Amino acid sequence: MQAKVLSGNQFSKLPSSYIRRESDRPRLSQVSDSNNIPLVDLSNPHKTQIVEQIGHACREYGFFQVVNHGVSRKLVDQVLNVAHEFFNLPVEEKLKLYSDDPSKTVRLSTSFNVNKENVHNWRDYLRIHCYPLDKFVPEWPNAPSSFKDTVGEYCKEVRGLGLRLQEAISESLNLEKDTIINMLGEQGQHMAMNYYPACPEPDLTYGLPAHTDPNALTILLQDQQVSGLQVKLKDGKWLAIKPHPDAFVVNIGDQIQALSNGKYKSVWHRAVVNADRARVSVPTFLCPSENATINAPGAIRGEGEPAIYRGFTYAEYYQKFWSRNLDQEHCLELFKK
Ligand code: OGA
Ligand code: NI
């Protein structure tokens, strides 16, 4: 019998349920890593430059990296250690948290949506809700023992950073600083710890297949040694994002694409795996409040520019997102006018 999670199990061969058909494989040799997504230094005293750089990155890539972001290196290292320790726990211990119900506020799962998908992905993940902290910390894992303190501290810091970035993004769209934040309401915050074990046949499968993030803004802490994140460029080619020990990778989610009336894109990205080393990543997802209505404000649309998407609540969107498989069309397509 196959255990429910990958981590802690040994595989000498890729099980057939993970093998993608020929036309749907990562073609790793065709992925470029010579270029990179823009790197924005948040300690730049010229705030207008930061806003310009972020605007440029959002228009051209939907992705950027930030350095001097204010979250200490020590805390970042501690979070990555906690992630490794968590996935190194005995399988029986981890399975107590297992669930494939996306509405659970704490759950360990595997692949993406195991009950909806035909082919599985080479990933385990722990997904937790993080805001408000007082409400959710009590239900977080007790092991490793530093989990709650370290992750709690990290969540506070990253939320502050995310809100600052949303202000800059708002300004880069020529909106008031607080327009986006006001529109998103009291934002939820979710975090995942992704664990991609070393994979016997990395050319035949994905850690996560191409997808866009359904939330507003994602702040990703990548493994500092092992690469795997790839972003789709405007020309259709895939670019590998090399690990940068001091940077977070930030990307626009579907909700900012919708409220910017498509000016900023929620870009396709994926995680690939490798034969030698396990990789971890820790994305933080800022999510509109459930009842926030997402609509492009008039101020963002030029004269006579129609709204591309109909208004919807985030609750409606999120439900639709999780009812699908990952590598289908962009979920926003279903909300076009
Ligand atoms: C995600 C994601 C990329 C990575 O969890 O949504 O895109 O590198 N992760 O793990
Ligand atoms: Ni993603």
Give a written overview of the molecule.
It is a single chain. 25% of the residues lie in helices and 20% in strands. The model has no long low-confidence stretch (mean pLDDT 95). Strand 1, helix 1 and strand 2 form a beta-alpha-beta unit. It is α+β, with helices and mostly antiparallel strands. Helix 1 packs across helix 5 and helix 2 crosses helix 5. The strands form 3 sheets. An 8-stranded mixed beta sheet has the order 1-2-10-7-12-5-4-3. 43% of the residues are buried. The longest helix has 26 residues. The chain binds N-oxalylglycine (OGA) and nickel (II) ion. N-oxalylglycine binds next to strand 5, strand 7, strand 11 and strand 12.
What descriptive keywords fit this protein?
binds nickel (II) ion, alpha+beta, 8-stranded mixed beta sheet, binds N-oxalylglycine, 25% helix, Jelly Rolls, 8 helices, 337 residues, 4-stranded antiparallel beta sheet
Small molecules bound: N-oxalylglycine, nickel (II) ion
Taking the alpha carbons of the first and last residues, their distance comes to 47 Å
How is the CATH topology named? Jelly Rolls
Mean pLDDT: 95
**What string gives the helices and strands in order?**
EHEHHEEHHHEEEEEEHEEEEH
Portion in strands: 15-25%
* Helix share bin: 25-40%
CATH homologous superfamily assignment: B-lactam Antibiotic, Isopenicillin N Synthase, Chain
SSE-based structural type: alpha+beta
- Count of the separate structural domains: 1
Q: Got a strand count?
A: 14
Which parts are unreliable, with pLDDT below 50 for 5 consecutive residues or more? none
Q: Biggest sheet: strands, sense, closure? A: 8 strands, mixed
Main sheet strand line-up: 1-2-10-7-12-5-4-3
User: Count of DSSP helices?
Assistant: 8
The CATH first-level class comes to Mainly Beta
Second CATH tier, the architecture: Sandwich
Q: What gyration radius follows from the Cα positions, in whole Å? A: 19 Å
Overall geometry: globular
